[in-house]
């Protein structure tokens, strides 16, 4: 059972550099791969987080854009700015993206980085980052404030993603805020819904056509039997 929590937690006092060093050493001792955390001289630290993308609605991306090359990444070329044409599609469910971030990287910056990597041009406010936890057989989702630091949460929880994982979802506010979508986005949504509706109608028609054929075959066989 999935449960979404919006409980505000009281923030503890920030740890000292020595405490951070001890936590990082404890964290790295549990790492089973090469994704270690590294402490910097100024007290900040860097590490990796994995984010699961669980988006139920289509996203908007540039139309006809080639995949980003290593050259583009090094030169920080934003391919999304190279065309005004847009299209919508569904990202694969449970797609996972790994990010190398700093202890000063906020939730807001993580969301923007994810959208940039997938060349999503939707407003970042349409998305939210959640932390996923398991307790008493339940899967609990808690929406993270934009000013939270995901790497610090990862450090506290340890490297085990069964204890804590991050999920990108739609920023649900109870009702869909259609005003936040542009006209082309809304038109794309209508096209997608129209296509899904037609496919569903065809599925129902095929189902009852097969049922009709079996029924006719049964009646034909019954007529041929004596009595």
TrEMBL record:
| MF terms (GO), sorted A to Z | zinc ion binding
Offer a single GO CC term for the protein: microtubule
Look up the domain of life of the source: Eukaryota
Give the subcellular location: Cytoplasm, Cytoskeleton
Q: Residue ranges of the SARAH domain?
A: 175-222
Give the matching InterPro entries: RA_dom, RASSF1-6, RASSF5_RA, SARAH_dom, Ubiquitin-like_domsf
Domain spans labelled Ras-associating: 87-173
Which GO BP terms sit in this record? apoptotic process; signal transduction
Protein keywords? Apoptosis, Cytoplasm, Cytoskeleton, Metal-binding, Microtubule, Phosphoprotein, Zinc, Zinc-finger
Q: Name one Pfam family in it.
A: RA
What PANTHER family would the database entry show? RAS ASSOCIATION DOMAIN-CONTAINING PROTEIN 5 (PTHR22738:SF9), RASSF (PTHR22738)
Kindly state the subunit structure of this protein.
Answer: Interacts directly with activated HRAS; a RASSF5-STK4/MST1 complex probably associates with activated HRAS. Interacts with KRAS. Probably interacts with Ras-like GTPases RRAS, MRAS, RAP1B, RAP2A and RALA. Interacts with RRAS2. Can self-associate. Interacts with RSSF1 isoform A. The RSSF1 isoform A-RSSF5 heterodimer probably mediates the association of RSSF1 with HRAS. Isoform 2 interacts with activated RAP1A and ITGAL/LFA-1. Binds STK4/MST1, inhibiting STK4/MST1 autoactivation.
What protein name applies here? Ras association domain-containing protein 5
Source species of the chain: Ceyx cyanopectus
């Amino acid at each position: 059972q999935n449960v979404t929590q919006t409980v505000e937690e009281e923030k503890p006092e920030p740890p000292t550099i020595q405490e951070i060093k001890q936590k990082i050493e404890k964290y790295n001792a549990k790492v089973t791969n090469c994704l270690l955390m590294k402490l910097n001289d100024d007290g900040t630290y860097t590490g990796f987080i994995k984010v699961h993308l669980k988006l139920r609605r289509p996203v908007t991306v540039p139309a006809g854009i080639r995949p980003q090359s290593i050259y583009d990444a090094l030169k920080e070329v934003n391919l999304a700015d190279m065309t005004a044409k847009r299209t919508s599609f569904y990202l694969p469910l449970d797609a996972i993206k790994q990010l190398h971030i700093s202890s000063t990287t906020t939730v807001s910056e993580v969301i923007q980085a994810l959208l940039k990597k997938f060349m999503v041009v939707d407003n970042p406010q349409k998305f939210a980052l959640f932390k996923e936890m398991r307790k008493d057989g339940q899967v609990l989702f808690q929406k993270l404030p934009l000013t939270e630091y995901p790497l610090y949460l990862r450090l506290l929880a340890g490297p085990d993603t069964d204890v804590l994982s991050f999920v990108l979802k739609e920023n649900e506010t109870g009702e869909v805020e259609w005003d936040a979508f542009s006209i082309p986005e809304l038109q794309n949504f209508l096209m997608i819904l129209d296509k899904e509706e037609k496919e569903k109608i065809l599925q129902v028609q095929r189902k009852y056509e097969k049922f009709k054929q079996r029924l006719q075959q049964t009646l034909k066989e019954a007529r041929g039997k004596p009595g």
